[in-house]
């Protein structure tokens, strides 16, 4: 019997392989009062970036991939180098049109497919 | 932590308006730079750069300004300097621009650079002179400036017995 050559073990570590990061966020707003539509939602995100990180932050390429006005939840896409700036700006945003609000980040991943399942809401 | 490292940014104030010279003061320049950092880098950038930010040296005649900041945030400061568009003091606002000459780790290196830079500028000014009178004027003033030694060092240096 011929012995197969021993399998070579190769390990590759890619630190920042993905170009974009995806975040599933939900905006918590007090009941009553107009809900923002998609354009106003993006304006809110960009204004949060502008407050915390200035014009450089506001110029960060952020995309709103989906937005549901009923639940006020959205999927955002940002370039990987800007994830920290975006997340910190969303955390520190407190007001929308003089009403208190808060951003809750539900999931984040460098792969969009990973946002489709959520093990927190898994019903076994 | 061993020690806090600073970066000293040497820049010069360029302006078309000759009245801008009287507006070059440390408070006015400091406020203008802080405002520019706040606009460009937001609250986070402003707080980062303000940790050890001062105007260390200012020369209104040549328009030379020396700014100090922490080593971790000198890139934020340098990138915000082109956004300073005007200086404001005593309710007067003059348009100007800040030109970065040198970034050094200590005041001494910035001073060495400034001395060399001023020498080269004087040579260039001499070459660009249009008439002979100006040349003579400049030559005379250059030859007449010299270091004056202080007459008396602080003479009374008594040894204090350390009884305090």
Automatic annotation (TrEMBL), chain A:
It holds the Pfam family RNase_P_Rpp14. One of its GO terms (biological process) is tRNA 5'-leader removal. One of its GO terms (cellular component) is multimeric ribonuclease P complex. The keyword rRNA processing does not apply. Coiled coil: none annotated. Keywords: tRNA processing. Belongs to the eukaryotic/archaeal RNase P protein component 2 family. This is RPP14 protein. The lineage of its organism: Eukaryota, Metazoa, Chordata, Craniata, Vertebrata. The gene is Rpp14.
Automatic annotation (TrEMBL), chain B:
One of its GO terms (molecular function) is ribonuclease P RNA binding. InterPro entries: Pop5/Rpp14/Rnp2-like, RNase_P/MRP_POP5, Rnp2-like_sf. Pfam families: RNase_P_Rpp14. GO terms for biological process: rRNA processing; tRNA 5'-leader removal. Keywords: Nucleus, rRNA processing, tRNA processing. Gene3D superfamilies: Ribonuclease P, Pop5 subunit. It is found in: Nucleus, Nucleolus. GO terms for cellular component: multimeric ribonuclease P complex; nucleolus. Component of nuclear RNase P and RNase MRP ribonucleoproteins. RNase P consists of a catalytic RNA moiety and 10 different protein chains; POP1, POP4, POP5, POP7, RPP14, RPP21, RPP25, RPP30, RPP38 and RPP40. Within the RNase P complex, POP1, POP7 and RPP25 form the 'finger' subcomplex, POP5, RPP14, RPP40 and homodimeric RPP30 form the 'palm' subcomplex, and RPP21, POP4 and RPP38 form the 'wrist' subcomplex. All subunits of the RNase P complex interact with the catalytic RNA. Several subunits of RNase P are also part of the RNase MRP complex. Belongs to the eukaryotic/archaeal RNase P protein component 2 family. PANTHER family: POP5 HOMOLOG, RIBONUCLEASE P_MRP SUBUNIT. Component of ribonuclease P, a protein complex that generates mature tRNA molecules by cleaving their 5'-ends. Also a component of the MRP ribonuclease complex, which cleaves pre-rRNA sequences. This is Ribonuclease P/MRP protein subunit POP5. It comes from Oxyruncus cristatus (sharpbill).
